[in-house]
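Lecture notes, continued. The same structure-token format from the folding unit now serves as the input rather than the output. Read the line below as a description of shape only.
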């Protein structure tokens, strides 16, 4: 496996001006993969200047041609699947099985979708006073800054870059310094398939330096951020200088409600996927399991048995179903929540610790963890972002809704029921950006993705994302209107 470990600016891999480097580790055993160049202010300035210089030609290029380049990138991703699977798995700890079935194909799928979208975004003509033509164009914003976290680095690169580029913006993207390697590989493929220099620039670096500076940058027209709510607030503050646009995807505390009329077997499987896929490191994880009292025991029997059977281990083993968390620091954070659960009087029904297997002791592993808690407990209110699910129970629909809507977050949530009226009623009443009924964590590049409340604002995916990456311009033409003089003289 060869990896890029420099910055990608103006179509070339280059060293950082200030020469800093950051170690990139494999969370399976914390061994060193490589050390990457660390972008600081000078490098961000260089990247923004390159993106600014590339903007006029890129934004005026025929939209279908921009789209074609994105489709060629999707093809290149598929042609390089083996290498991308290896890079993503080693850098993040995602099992190769997931990288092959989800991370890589979904990345190609998303780039291809937005490739097709490039020439589908249309303006409109407004029926104004006779004699005037008023039309609305959708124009790109300019240089867009994007800050991507470490939980799905490859996939989120496509979510962020796809709509921005399709709409005609140029991009400066900062991957998390923990997991920059797949994004740098994408940059290499972009250069290969013919993206003009400067259209995309990748600047790995620390959030509080490179990320903050990018969010403050006066020549950046929009900042798109995925990460924690606390950092989201800093991004909003940083944006104020030039009033840049902001799009925030800040995580959640997904309510996953199981009613007594649900198909229990389907709900057990879907609920395990909702929390344990990607080691629970997902903003839309179903991290609160909210069970109707009458079926709670039956459900938990099946759920605990399934959770216990999840094959935890080396992500490079094709049979592994759950890998390590992405960093030592994050492992400690999740283990700390296990302690908080105990202190709060929560009952640990499963896990709550690192695995006993000595082969995994050098890595960032945490066992699938199930905790019975009260809905006001910290473990039911704060995002743990690990293989950690908090279980509560309810008597009736009203109580279920109060629990579901009872956090500061509002990203994704869902319910399991065979009652059609209840499904619609709940979908209407859940204070969320996304609701799933008899499924969980469904995502498609055409369907808007984002949240309300402390989960942020703005939407990724679909026409909504294209809208958020463009500005409306209203143009008035006097075709043959006789305008009475405003100051008759
Ligand atoms: P984070 O601090 O919010 O980091 C997310 C990204 O933002 C990283 O690339 C980070 O860079 C960057 N960043 C940090 N400070 C910044 C600043 N002042 N200005 C601009 N960018 C900045 O999240 P984290 O520390 O990685 O994880 C903490 C918690 O956040 C998690 O446990 C989870 O609850 C939540 N989270 C949510 C999502 C999500 O999908 N919504 C993703 C990741 C984390 P560095 O890597 O250098 O810090
Ligand atoms: Mg890593």
């Amino acid at each position: 496996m060869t990896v890029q470990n420099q910055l990608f600016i103006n179509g070339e891999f280059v060293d950082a001006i200030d020469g800093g480097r950051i170690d990139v580790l494999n969370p399976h055993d914390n061994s060193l993969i490589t050390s990457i160049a660390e972008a600081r202010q000078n490098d961000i300035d260089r990247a923004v200047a390159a993106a600014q210089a590339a903007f006029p030609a890129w934004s005026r290029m025929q939209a279908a041609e921009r789209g074609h380049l994105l489709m060629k990138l999707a093809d290149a991703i598929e042609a390089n699947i083996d290498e991308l699977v290896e890079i993503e798995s080693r850098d993040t700890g995602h099992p190769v099985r997931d990288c092959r079935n989800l991370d890589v194909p979904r990345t190609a799928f998303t780039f291809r979708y937005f490739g097709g979208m490039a020439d589908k975004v249309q303006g409109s003509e407004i029926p104004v006073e006779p004699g005037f033509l008023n039309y609305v164009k959708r124009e790109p914003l300019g240089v867009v800054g994007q800050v991507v976290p470490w939980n799905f680095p490859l996939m989120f690169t496509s979510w962020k870059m796809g709509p921005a580029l399709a709409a005609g913006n140029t991009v400066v993207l900062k991957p998390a310094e923990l997991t920059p390697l797949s994004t740098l590989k994408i940059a290499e493929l972009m250069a290969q398939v013919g993206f003009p220099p400067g259209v995309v620039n990748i600047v790995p670096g620390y959030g509080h330096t490179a990320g903050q500076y990018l969010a403050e940058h006066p020549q950046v027209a929009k900042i798109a951020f995925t990460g924690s709510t606390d950092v989201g607030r800093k991004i909003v503050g940083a944006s104020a200088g030039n009033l840049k646009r902001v799009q925030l995807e800040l995580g959640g505390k997904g309510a996953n409600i199981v009613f007594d009329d649900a198909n229990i077997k389907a709900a057990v499987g879907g609920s395990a996927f909702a929390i344990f896929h990607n080691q629970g490191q997902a903003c839309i994880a179903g991290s609160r399991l909210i069970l109707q009292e009458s079926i709670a025991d039956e459900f938990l029997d099946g759920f605990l048995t399934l959770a216990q059977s999840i094959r935890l281990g080396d992500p490079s083993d094709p049979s592994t179903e759950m890998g390590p968390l992405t960093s030592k620091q994050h492992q400690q954070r999740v283990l700390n929540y296990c302690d908080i659960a105990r202190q709060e009087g929560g009952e640990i029904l499963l896990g709550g610790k690192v695995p006993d297997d000595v082969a995994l002791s050098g890595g960032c592993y945490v066992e699938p963890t199930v905790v019975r808690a009260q809905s006001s407990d910290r473990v039911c209110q704060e995002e743990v972002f690990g293989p950690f699910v908090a279980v509560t129970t309810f008597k009736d629909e009203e109580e279920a809704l109060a629990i579901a809507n009872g956090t500061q977050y509002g990203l994704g949530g869902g319910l399991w029921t065979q009652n059609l009226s209840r499904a619609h009623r709940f979908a209407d009443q859940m204070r969320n950006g996304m609701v799933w009924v008899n499924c969980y964590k469904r995502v498609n590049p055409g369907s808007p993705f984002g949240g309300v409340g402390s989960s942020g604002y703005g939407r990724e995916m679909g026409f909504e994302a294209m809208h958020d990456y463009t500005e409306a311009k209203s143009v008035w033409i006097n075709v043959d209107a006789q305008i009475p003089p405003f100051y008759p003289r």
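Point for the exam: The pocket of magnesium ion (ligand 2) is lined by residues 24-25, 27, 91, 178-179 (CB under 6 Å).
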